[in-house]
Design a protein that fits this description.
alpha/beta, Rossmann fold, 7-stranded mixed beta sheet, 9 strands, binds S-adenosylmethionine
Amino acid sequence: MSKEKVVSDYNGYDYKTEFWEKTDRAYEDQADRMAIRKLLPKRMEKFADIGGGYGRLANEYLKRARKVYIFDYSKTELDQAKEMYGDKIETRAGDIYKLPFKDNELDGLMMVRVTHHLEHLDKAIAELYRVLKPGGSAVIEVANKRTLPKMARFVTGRSKINPFDQSVANYKEISKDGFYNYHPKYVENIFSKVGFKTEKILSVSNFRSRGLKKFLGTNNLVKMENGAQQLLAPIRFAPSIYYKLRKPEE
Ligand SMILES: C[S@@+](CC[C@H](N)C(=O)[O-])C[C@H]1O[C@@H](n2cnc3c(N)ncnc32)[C@H](O)[C@@H]1O
């Protein structure tokens, strides 16, 4: 595994407890699940959750695929996944830039909350394309740099990162956390250069705000989110943008 490319090490980090259970992120979790249910094919033979961590989202795909892989480089995450799902999944460890799958091996894959760790998004997307068989589907979530709060911070001078240009935003030291955010157009160019056809786009976690959670409550935000994912997709202002992509038949 090339060290300079793996920018966030989840070994020894209890992502499940620290990030999801100790914090108020039920809305974000529901928003992810809602999008995945709308985008993933109903039936697949071989499916992989790329950077799947401990399998937070496994219940959204276990019933849809005959064979399920959870791929990640963190042993801590994969051991947790195995403990939770046993024989229902197979774990595979490695680096996203060199996926341990053959060309055209999978007929479905998903990659959620991983792009913000990737220094070379184009290379990772090309790898996803390689392992997917012609006609196969990829659901990819992208960390968006062009959100309303980031626009507000930029125009009021509180941030120097320009959300309107297409350069990749790196919000933290690469050696520490590697927190990349992307302009939707930049990502969409990569998808089409690699050869993917975009079938559907959703705007996700539209109401991610501590204030809104406090004021309206998670249940109301989840209801609003359901309608907003499709409605707001054309403007792509949300922190997460989901793409359903297809590798064309040969
Ligand atoms: C924020 S977590 C997301 C986990 C899961 N997809 C979810 O939504 O709950 C990011 C995951 O990506 C994995 N990851 C980051 N960079 C990677 C790389 N270069 N190769 C393989 N996995 C990577 C991390 O180990 C971690 O489990």
